[in-house]
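In response to the reviewer comment on reproducibility (Comment 2.3), we provide here a single inverse folding case reported in full, input and output, so that an independent group could reproduce the run without further information from us. The structure tokens appear first.
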């Protein structure tokens, strides 16, 4: 059986990835703070199981993954994928005007949780003969500085370096595991709504992002998810350590 664990499935890109995988007979385990009733009620070839978790809470995240791993260890698995998609963009604010709580949550969700989860994941499956596929969702913000996105750019850049390093280790260890990055570019999601609602004093490029919406430049999440899911369904096409972007396709 094919299984995929996807973080951030309550809405946006994660919800689209989960549904497209389920349509392709992959059983999805989704995580987010809120539920996704549409996925839970969906009558598709692949099943959906939801775990409510706040990824900012690392202890809760660890406990949740222990439960997921224990469940999966009882299943007959021939394909196991992990899609780390959940993230937040806030705080959108210049440095010097943020709270420590905002920064802690941000770094926990965007960087520490993916690191803790990857570590548990590789340990859990080390002695099993299942080649793993892991994908981390990145952003163009990892590679360029944006006024007000100091936290977001830093955690996405950290995630990029982390993913590259894990890829290097897995290659040297000859595990056959593959980990890669996927850049979805700009999409029409709540995250973009939050970006547009920032004050120009917090985010100087806010007008440009408002124009992306009015000029219909934001991609639909189903279209973007389809690009990633096509690759996930063709595991032999995945290159360990790859940087894959929706812009490579269109
Ligand atoms: N939208 C864009 O234009 C864009 C561009 C480049 C990269 N990206 C990246 O694409 C990915 C998906 O973004 P999106 O636009 O789909 O975002 P979104 O619509 O805001 O959805 C974010 C998802 O992450 C989950 N999440 C956030 N905080 C969480 C927490 N503390 N605990 C558990 N789950 C949490 C949310 O679930 P709950 O709120 O229910 O917890 C939700 O399911 C992210 O990695 C983002 O950085 C987006």
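Designed residues, in position order:
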């Amino acid at each position: 059986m094919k299984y995929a664990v996807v973080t951030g499935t309550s809405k946006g890109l994660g919800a689209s990835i989960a549904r497209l995988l389920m349509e392709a007979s992959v059983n999805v385990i989704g995580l987010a703070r809120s539920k996704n009733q549409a996925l839970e009620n969906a009558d598709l070839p692949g099943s959906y199981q939801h775990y409510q978790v706040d990824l900012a809470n690392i202890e809760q995240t660890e406990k949740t993954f222990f439960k997921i791993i224990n469940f999966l260890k009882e299943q007959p698995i021939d394909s196991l994928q992990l899609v780390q998609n959940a993230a937040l963009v806030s705080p959108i604010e210049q440095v010097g005007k943020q709270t420590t709580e905002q920064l802690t949550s941000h770094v926990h969700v965007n960087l520490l949780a993916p690191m803790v989860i990857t570590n548990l994941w590789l340990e859990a499956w080390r002695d099993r003969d299942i080649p793993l596929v892991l994908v981390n969702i990145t952003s163009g913000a990892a590679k360029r500085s944006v006024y007000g996105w100091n936290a977001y750019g830093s955690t996405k850049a950290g995630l990029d370096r982390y993913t590259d390093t894990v890829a290097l280790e897995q290659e040297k260890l000859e595990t056959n595991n593959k980990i890669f990055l996927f850049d979805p570019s700009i999409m029409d999601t709540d995250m973009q709504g939050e970006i547009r609602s920032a004050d120009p004093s917090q985010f100087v490029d806010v007008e440009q992002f408002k124009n992306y919406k009015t000029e219909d430049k934001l991609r639909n999440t189903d279209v973007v998810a389809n690009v990633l899911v096509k690759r996930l369904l063709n595991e032999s096409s995945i290159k360990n350590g790859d940087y894959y972007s929706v812009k490579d396709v269109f």
